[in-house]
Amino acid sequence: MSPLLEVRNLSVAYGAIEAVRDISFTVEAGQIVSLIGSNGAGKTTTLRTISGLLRPAAGEILFQGKPIHNQPAHTILGMGISHSPEGRRLFPRMTVEENLQLGAYVRKDDGVQADMQRVYDLFPVLGERRHNKAGLFSGGEQQMLAIGRAMMSKPRLLMLDEPSMGLSPIMTQRIFDTIKELQSLGTTILLVEQNALAALALSDHGYVIDLGKTTLDGPGHSLLADQRVRDAYLGESH
Amino acid sequence: MSVLLQQLANGVVQGALIALIALGYTMVYGIIQLINFAHGEVFMVASYGGLATFTLLPEDLQKSPAVALPLMFVGGIVVAVVVAVIMERFAYRPLRNAPRLAPLITALGVSVFLQEAVRVFYPNAKSNLPYPKVFPEGNLTLGPVNVSWTGVLLVGLSIGLAVILQTYINKSRMGRAMRATAQDPDTAKLMGVNPNRVIVLTFVFGAVLAGVAGIMYGGYLNNINIDMGFQTGIFAFTAAVLGGVGSIRGAVIGAFIIGLIKTVAGQYMPGGTQYDYVWIFVVLILVLVFRPQGLFGEPERVRA
Ligand SMILES: Nc1ncnc2c1ncn2[C@@H]1O[C@H](COP(=O)(O)OP(=O)(O)OP(=O)(O)O)[C@@H](O)[C@H]1O
Ligand SMILES: [Mg+2]
């Protein structure tokens, strides 16, 4: 059986700037996979290319065995890939509820209301303030809403770009617990993090990206133990 | 005093007309940050579309306003929508990612093209054409103030359609997608919103409103000409800027302010109606000095 997501020799450029050079990785159904790497390594660019906002200069992206790298972003969401972008990118002038409804925009089934309640159960503060504008929330609350919104499409693959950015350690722990819980509910997760320690501890598999290339990969716990990873990423993150 | 009241009433009717057109400017700007200068021409071709529809009707139907007027609305709106959709598809969409100046210049080109097309192909379009007498006759008289029933109908249509539009944008699924695309187009795509569909729909809504305006203009002023789109378009564009481009409420309120300035200044200021543009721009500049984003606009912000 083909993996859920397969990225093969992907290269992406912004004009003359090559941001991603020959990245390859796979995500198996049911896993949490993380991409770690320092600032500017090309992690965000990789996710934006998978979700169809950018076009690759070379390489392939296969989802459930089918190439998707020429599909527009709204089609890719419909195929089951949801992307919670870097910086959260909520619709600040819309309410919590409207943001969640937009997350479920392509759904035609009648389970939307129940799933919205599930998000409120997971993050009660969102339920209490469902009619408030998203722009008024704190960083941690906004991150909860961003994750909740990305869950609303019921994705097979959920991509999270730096969900812990700007959050307190307690809030970060909440978010990582939630990611684990989503996995146990059957969602496959592709996680991008600078907080390598927390991400790898949670991951079935990790890939280290450096200057646009995958340089190392392995199960989360063995990358955590790898001296090269410890020197490069863990020393500075804690 | 009664002259002032009469001019205020006239200003409200003019404002209602301007509002119908200003909504198209403001919606398109809100979604793709394009000032669609050709929008005034969509209003103009709708007016001619309505006239053509009437001309094509059999004589017995022409004598029955209850049939002819609705058919003219249909004809005018269809022409406006077709022109707007073609314009979006072939003039603006290919330039979606080009520098902003390119679509702006294209809009001016489309505007000139549409005017010339009507001038060349519509019979006798070089002179003013009388509009069919199928509109409500008589006046509503309130004390010293007289407003034609056609004017009353225009105000009702304008306010009614603006309320429907605002409700649709705030409450419906597609309306949410439109607001999302206006606020953050990339993230809207990540929600599964097809940007082309949202943009086409925006042009269609603007064209429907401009279509209604085109027919009512003929009914209220009794004749039409090819410059009407340019002239009324400038007032409508100014109304959209005054109210804050992108804001529905702003466009409507801006339009009524401009309608009122136009008639009141035309009555009382030196130079009369010939100088109405001057007073409108004076007010516009004063507002923009103190509120650059317009009365109801969101402050300009840099996209992340
Ligand atoms: N819109 C853009 N135009 C030009 N260059 C860009 C653009 N976005 C990113 N880059 C460049 O591409 C490279 C990869 O950026 P990217 O945002 O993918 O890295 P990242 O791994 O997500 O970094 P971070 O951890 O800081 O989020 C960087 O050198 C960056 O400067
Ligand atoms: Mg990044």
From TrEMBL, chain A:
Pfam families, per database record: ABC_tran (PF00005)
Keyword check for NADP: no
Start and end residues of each ABC transporter domain: 5-236
Lineage: superkingdom: Bacteria
Transmembrane segments: none
One annotated GO molecular function: ATP hydrolysis activity
Entry keyword set: Amino-acid transport, ATP-binding, Nucleotide-binding, Transport
Tagged with keyword Transport: yes
One record GO biological process: L-amino acid transport
InterPro entries cross-referenced by the UniProt entry: AAA+_ATPase, ABC_branched_ATPase_LivF/BraG, ABC_transporter-like_ATP-bd, ABC_transporter-like_CS, BCAA_Transport_ATP-bd_LivF, P-loop_NTPase
PROSITE patterns: ABC_TRANSPORTER_1, ABC_TRANSPORTER_2
Family the entry assigns: Belongs to the ABC transporter superfamily.
Matches recorded under PANTHER family: BRANCHED-CHAIN AMINO ACID TRANSPORT SYSTEM,ATP-BINDING PROTEIN (PTHR43820:SF3), HIGH-AFFINITY BRANCHED-CHAIN AMINO ACID TRANSPORT ATP-BINDING PROTEIN LIVF (PTHR43820)
Name by which UniProt lists this protein: Branched-chain amino acid transport system ATP-binding protein
Organism: Lentzea jiangxiensis
Automatic annotation (TrEMBL), chain B:
GO MF, one example: L-phenylalanine transmembrane transporter activity
First-listed, main subcellular location of the protein, grouped into a coarse class: membrane
GO CC list: plasma membrane
Superkingdom, taxonomy of origin: Bacteria
GO terms, biological process: D-alanine transmembrane transport; L-alanine transport; L-isoleucine import across plasma membrane
Keywords: Amino-acid transport, Cell inner membrane, Cell membrane, Membrane, Transmembrane, Transmembrane helix, Transport
The keyword Transport is assigned to this record: yes
Entry's localization field: Cell membrane
UniProt cross-references to Pfam families, sorted A to Z: BPD_transp_2 (PF02653)
Family annotation (InterPro entries): ABC_BtuC-like (IPR037294), ABC_transp_permease (IPR001851), BCAA_transport_permease (IPR052157)
Cell membrane found in the keyword field: yes
Gene3D superfamilies the record matches: ABC transporter involved in vitamin B12 uptake, BtuC
Transmembrane segments annotated in the record for this chain: 12-32, 39-57, 69-92, 104-122, 147-169, 198-220, 232-265, 277-296
CDD domains: TM_PBP1_LivH_like
Bilayer disposition of the protein: Multi-pass membrane protein
Family in the record: Belongs to the binding-protein-dependent transport system permease family. LivHM subfamily.
Protein name per the record: Branched-chain amino acid transport system permease protein
Record lineage: Bacteria, Bacillati, Actinomycetota, Actinomycetes, Pseudonocardiales
